């Protein structure tokens, strides 16, 4: 059964499922702040497969595996293999990772299991910035690991020119804003798309303040002053804006931009959001900034009930009216401080 265009209350179809595999992480990025605790009742491979299958039945075409750090999950390759029968309706299986555990062997195993793309997170090209942004003293070692991970992913067949390999960078004002140009330079040299992410108010532990946000227009203008860029058309249901270098530098991808920005704070994109988030313990969140989720385990344990689960997910999606980023912008325009904004689930639990 497939209902490809199941709309929510704002007319947005389900397109992408972000499945968190663990809330644990081997980094401690201060802007994310995982607490090192796994929630009780983690789902297994079969429950996760059934969840993705139900989402695909409702129109999802992409699953993004995330965390915490998804490479900490020893069953990751088994899950990717188990998702293959969902093709071709499931068009893309993607992974977001900090890359620390992406050895040459692991990259090959993931590719062989059927993973389509890898987004690696790196917030600087200098040890001191990487240390600050990753919460680790050994920033130089972390940087080397991620640079090696880029090479391993490419060697395993994750091709940046086909959108198979990207770099994600969170930029925080006064913390690593000096890394925008070095990161752009690194991405240009290596032919990678660089996705610049505004620091977001996800979770409650990171102590987010509006003055810590560097807006994406400033990031892009800094790059523009060094290597002129021009905007590309925005894709339907994309949460990012795309740019290309006038000198043709960057990815060399026919449809992939060398630069993209996620401007959740300065230019909210709720009207295009087609993402459903599912935590490692089986809670569905219709928005990255939702205060609570829906427990899907009654339809998954002790054994999965696919038809009932599909109905529960359809009901959840059809009731969805979240547009937090836009509301935040409206609230901030009228409120004296952001303390009036609601609390959220933590990023390492939700998976971004
Ligand atoms: N551990 C993996 C990683 O870092 O790529 C996957 C999980 S992480 C939660 C997913 C993405 O969320 C990463 O690209 C990370 O940089 C981003 N992220 C985490 N906290 C953020 C925040 N407060 N604002 C913006 N992006 C954030
Ligand atoms: Fe870990 Fe990713 Fe969060 Fe950093 S952003 S602490 S790597 S889950």
Describe the structure in your own words.
Helix content is 30%, strand content 16%. The protein has 352 residues and is an alpha/beta fold. It has a single domain, classed as TIM Barrel, CATH 3.20.20. It has a twelve-stranded mixed β-sheet. The model has no long low-confidence stretch (mean pLDDT 91). S-adenosylmethionine is lined by residues 25, 31-32, 66-67, 69, 96-98, 121, 168, 170, 197, 199-200, 202, 206, 347-348, 351-352.
The percentage of residues in β strands lies in: 15-25%
Q: How does the helix and strand content classify structurally?
A: alpha/beta
Overall pLDDT: 91
Count of strand segments? 12
For the biggest sheet, the summary is:
12 strands, mixed
Low-confidence segments, given as residue ranges, are none
Give me the CATH fold name. TIM Barrel
- What's the shape? globular
Strand arrangement, major sheet: 7-8-9-6-5-4-3-2-1-10-11-12
**Helix count from the secondary structure assignment:** 10
Say what oligomer this is.
single chain
Q: List SSEs in N-to-C order.
A: EHEHEHEHHEHEHEEEEEEHHH
The level of helicity is 25-40%
Q: List the ligand species.
A: S-adenosylmethionine, iron/sulfur cluster
CATH superfamily: Aldolase class I
The top level CATH class name: Alpha Beta
Q: How far from one another are the termini?
A: 29 Å
By CATH, the architecture is named Alpha-Beta Barrel
Instruction: Write down the domain tally.
Output: 1
Rg, rounded, reads: 19 Å
